[in-house]
User: Fold this.
Amino acid sequence: MEALRKEKRYTYEDYYAWDDDGRWELIDGVPYAMSPAPSQAHQTILGSLFSQLYSFLEGKPCKVFVAPFDVRLNPNSYDDTVVQPDILVVFNDDKLDGKCCVGAPDMVIEILSPSTAIKDKNIKFNKYLQAGVREYWIVDPDIMEVSAYTLDSGRYYAASYAEGEAVPVHVLDGCVIDLGRVFAG
Assistant:
């Protein structure tokens, strides 16, 4: 199936019909194989971020999801981009169809690994910007840093936070993530 995937541009309909056991992302119609299981450090960071967001959102209408959970970034045009961010926050239930998020989430977090760093920092960065993701975090476990990008007037504005600092979540008024807990492992 991998050889066939290189021959044409695919859509969400194709992606959803694939019957292999692999995990894929589809970006501009091009399939990307997902890495094998993430490292222990990746999972520890993911768990702490998810836990803090989940606790803050408990009882609120917003929802937080953890990978694997599909996001169709451009469902109203070519519908050829399906990503699986590490964490996503969705405010509007209308974007959830029971299988995936249809349209841009309000917040996305990607945790870097050697095999995904270039894609997360460049390709996905631009796709999230174009789709209108309001807040995008890139977490670098190696240097224990979070780059937080906030969308304003069609551009991302960056702020960096290091281990031990508190990061405000701009799309969630009053939510602050403790990086001391995130990088404790």
User: Anything to note?
Assistant: The mean pLDDT is 93. The domain at 2-182 is CATH 3.90.1570.10 (tt1808, chain A).
